[in-house]
Write a structure and sequence with these properties.
The complex is a heterodimer of chains A (329) and B (48). By secondary structure, chain A is an all-alpha fold. Chain A is built from 16 helices and no strands. Chain B has one domain. Chain B contains 1 helix and no strands. The chains are: A mainly alpha (329), B mainly alpha (48). Chains A and B meet through α4 and α6 of A and α1 of B.
Chain lengths: 329, 48
């Protein structure tokens, strides 16, 4: 259990700037969501879609992702205040009230689903609503503080955007769309557990049962390797279902091998094991970490490049330019 | 409620920024609804 914190009481209130409200939408996470959803749309044949409606669909997906992030921030303000990485966020720092973030999240969620349904289609709107509810209710309210499987199950919310994009462009969500969902789903545990290996002190302090806190670093490193051994071959499958072409196959093969190598190096390392505290004048960042934690950091960063590479390859192969080049041959 | 007369210059700037951002968001929302309506209506106009 965590001790509830009333940040607005503990910290002096500053006037909220509009940028504080934007930060509640987690723009970096939103950009990854938009990127994977856009890939789903392009693979589904968004070229045949009215460009204005396609832009509205992307906007709705971005707003939905932002809305669910604001709901997450509103509920998690107490534990965010206890972690170094998150204590400067707008709510724990006292710049924005949790109730305002809640209102922003609800408004963005309702409007993004409503406009998606009216402008694009109700399958995409339904999947978007499911994604938002899964992240806000199943992950944030239910799983995050209760089980070390929080990001495994909750990862479904982050994995669904390609299917939302696919449904927005085509009105249906076939097997290939769910293949992209599966890739992001199996990518999530190695990515976030690698990060949690060198931030587990924060999670322990906040009472969040992340895998390294509950099962220890050695078990987490083994599980990261296991998920990566599933992910790497899964990443190849779109090349055999007609979704990915030769560029995709090359990226998935080379990237998959590199990722397995990074995960094996991490499994053999001592990243996340108890270590003496850092000097008071030295702080760890997302990428500036102590030497023992570098295998975890490298997998965290490498997995981002891997996912970006896979989806970028699909985007390139499904753009009109590639179709035009193919006709020229 | 805090006394508006106590508002500092920084707080006033922040409030003005929030108001402008809200105005832009509302205008964008109206524009989206208008454009989507036109696109959907034009899709239902038979070609003569």
């Amino acid at each position: 259990m965590t001790t509830p914190v009333q940040p607005a009481v503990l910290l002096p209130r500053e006037a909220a700037r509009w940028q504080d409200y934007v930060s509640l939408l987690k723009p970096r996470v939103m950009s990854l969501v938009v990127f994977t959803a856009l890939t789903g749309m392009v693979c589904a044949g968004a070229g045949a879609m009215n460009p204005i409606l396609a832009a509205v669909a992307v906007l709705c997906i971005a707003a939905g992702a932002g809305g669910s992030a604001a709901l997450n921030m509103a509920y998690d303000a107490d534990i965010d205040a206890l972690m170094r990485r998150t204590r400067h966020r707008a709510i724990p720092a006292g710049r924005v009230q949790a109730a305002d973030a809640l209102a922003l999240g609800i408004v963005l969620s309702l409007f993004s689903v409503g406009i998606m349904g009216l402008a694009v289609g109700w399958l995409a709107a339904g999947l978007l609503a499911f994604t938002i509810l899964f992240y806000a209710v199943v992950y944030t309210l239910w799983l995050k503080r209760r089980t070390p499987q929080n990001i495994v199950i909750g990862g479904l919310a982050g994995a669904l955007p390609p299917a939302v994009g696919w449904a927005a462009a085509s009105g249906h969500a076939p097997l290939n769309a769910w293949l992209l969902v599966a890739i992001v789903f199996f990518w999530t545990p190695p990515h976030f557990w690698a990060l949690s290996l060198y931030t587990s002190g924060d999670y322990a302090q906040a009472g969040v049962p992340m895998m390294p806190v509950v099962r220890g670093a050695a078990s987490t490193r083994r599980q990261i390797l296991a998920y990566t051994l599933v992910l790497a071959p899964l990443g190849l499958t779109p090349a055999f279902t007609g979704l990915g072409g030769p560029i995709y196959l090359a990226v998935a093969a080379v990237g998959g091998l590199a990722l397995v190598a990074l995960a094996a190096r991490l499994a053999l390392s001592h990243a996340g094991d108890p270590a003496p505290p850092l000097p008071t004048d030295r702080r760890e960042g997302l990428y500036d970490v102590r030497i023992a934690a570098r295998p975890a950091r490298d997998l965290f960063a490498g997995s981002l490049f891997y996912l970006f590479g896979l989806f970028a390859a699909l985007l390139v192969e499904h753009t009109p330019l590639m179709a035009w080049l193919g006709q020229g041959r | 409620m805090s006394d508006p007369n106590d508002e500092t210059a920084a707080a006033a700037r922040a409030r003005r920024g929030r108001n402008v951002a809200l105005a832009v968001a509302l205008f964008a929302f109206v524009a989206i609804i208008f454009v989507v309506t036109i696109v959907k209506l034009s899709g239902n106009v038979p070609a003569h």
